[in-house]
Design a protein that fits this description.
This protein is α+β, with helices and mostly antiparallel strands. 28% of the residues lie in helices and 27% in strands. It is globular. Bound molecules: N-oxalylglycine and manganese (II) ion. It comes from Phaeocystidibacter marisrubri.
Length: 206
């Protein structure tokens, strides 16, 4: 399939239902190469617990959101990640051209959900973070089965939830305001998670 028709289908999915899921957006080998990089950073102790707010105590926070993350420097990263970032830049340009979304930049981090962790139902676009327009997640987990849990549940208004297995090479994109959840994982779950923003990254923390 040409890149254009794939991007067309992503744009249609985002406009119609609000999400789109693409198995094998990158090859299994590419996904495993990126996963190896993530595991190396994890073993070197570079990941940090992801925060949801300072006011909540540690254990409660961990029950709500148990992932650990490592932000990626878009300008200085491994070739396999760079080529994925280039495709996301092309997608960003395409969405601006076809859907007038006014996307300016993207931010992206590795995430690992250790066994037994989850991320409770939430939206990625909220008062403290209003510039996230499209969320996108590339999954990096070979041979992931139903019983491994860790599905992404997407809650579309008036519809049954959609459950997506975090299988190596799959990309899922959704409008950031849509509520979603990561179900409890029964083994470590790796991904590259990012957002297309309507403001340059440096300005989003103002
Ligand atoms: C997030 C998130 C979904 C996923 O990091 O905000 O919702 O499937 N991730 O990893
Ligand atoms: Mn989210």
């Amino acid at each position: 399939m040409s890149a254009l028709s794939l991007f067309d289908r992503i744009a249609d999915g985002l406009a119609d239902t609000g999400y789109f899921s693409i198995p094998n957006f990158v090859s299994r080998d590419e996904a495993l190469a990126i996963r190896d990089i993530a595991i190396r950073h994890k073993e070197e102790g570079e990941f940090r617990r992801a925060g949801i707010g300072k006011q909540i105590e540690y254990q409660l926070e961990k029950d709500i959101r148990g992932d650990e993350i490592l932000w990626i420097d878009n300008e200085d990263t491994a070739p396999s990640i760079k080529s994925y970032l280039q495709r996301m830049e092309e997608l960003q340009n395409f969405l601006n051209y076809t859907c007038f979304l006014g996307l300016k930049e993207y931010e992206i981090h590795f995430a690992v959900y250790p066994k037994g962790t989850r991320y409770a139902r939430h939206s990625d676009r909220f008062k403290n973070n209003p510039h996230r327009v499209i969320s996108f997640v590339l999954y990096l987990n070979p041979d992931w089965e139903e019983e491994d849990g860790g599905q992404l549940a997407i809650y579309l208004e008036g519809k049954d939830p959609v459950f997506i297995l975090p299988e190596a090479g799959k990309l899922v994109c959704f409008r950031s305001e849509i509520e979603h959840e990561v179900l409890e994982c029964n083994r470590a779950r790796y991904s590259l998670t990012g957002w297309l923003l309507d403001q340059p990254v440096g300005l989003t923390f103002l």
